[in-house]
Amino acid sequence: MDMIDTEKYYKDCTLCPRKCHADRTSGKTGFCGMSSDLKLAKAYKHMWEEPCITGKNGSGTVFFSGCNMKCIFCQNAEISHGGFGAVSDAEGLASIFIDLQDKNASNINLVTGTCFIPHIRGAIISAKEKGLHIPVIFNCGGYESAESLKLLEGLIDIYMPDMKYSSDLLSRELSSAPDYFETAKKAISEMFRQTGRVEFNEKGLMIKGTLVRHLILPGNTGDSKRILRFLHDTYGNDILISIMNQYTPMPTVESHPLLSRKVTDEEYKRVLDFAEKIGIENGFIQYGEAASESFIPSWDLEGIKVSPVPPCT
Question: Dihedral of CA 217/173/116/310: which sign?
C-alpha cells in the first residue's frame, strides 16, 4: 500500500465533518485544537476494554491528543480539550505499535485519532513492513468523515466507534454537533463496508468487524433506545453493540440538570430490557465494578518517550 502526501491533508483540513479548512501546517490549529504535529498522550496495555478486545494480555492502547467532538462531559478533557501530549511522527508511532506487540498486547487500539488519520495511515504501513501482525483498532467518537475513513481501508481490522446521540438537540447542546446522528450513521456504514461481519479467533478475541459503543446518559433512555433500534434494524447481529453504564459526572457539568448525576440502576435496566425485547444478541453490558468505574487513565506520557508539549491555549 502506498504512502500519501500527509501535508496536503493538513494544509486545508477537512479530515473530520467540521471541515474547518485550517492550515494546520502553518502552526494554526483546527477545531480539534491540533496543528499538523502528531501529539500522543499515552501508550500502554489497557485491561478494561470489552473482553473480546482486552483478552488476557490487554489492549495495546495509544491515546492521541485533541478531539473533534468537545463533549462537555468528556472524561479525558486534559488531552481532548487541553491538548496535553508529546510530539511524535509516523515513524515514532510505528515504533510504539511494535513495542506494544513485543509486550504481547492483544491488538493496537488507536483512541481518538481522527485529526491525525494521515499520520496513522503512514504509521500502520511502516509498522506492517516491520512485522506488525496483530489487529489494529480505530477507536473513535463516531463523528467521522466517511471520505477520510477511506484513507484507512485495508489497514484497520476493527472499528470501535461510539454512537452517542440520536437527538440533534442533544448533540448540539452536549457536543456542538447538531448533525451527529446522520454523520455517525454514514461513518459506521463505511466502517462496516470495510470490515464486514464480526470475526473472532480461537481465543475468542475479535479480529475483524465493527463494535459500536453507546454510553447511556442520565435522563436520556429514550435516546438510547432509538440508537439501539437503529443499529439492530440496520446491522442485526453482524456487528457488536456495547451498552455502557459507566458515565461519570465531571466538574464541568456539576450544575447541569441531568449530567450532574450518574445513570441509575433503573435507567440502565430499562435500556437493557429494551435491547432484549428487540432481539439484540451480540454485545456487552456492564455490571458491578465495571459499571461504576470511570476508566480515566493517568496522563503521564507512558510509552511515548519524547518531551512533553505544553497544553494549547
Answer: negative
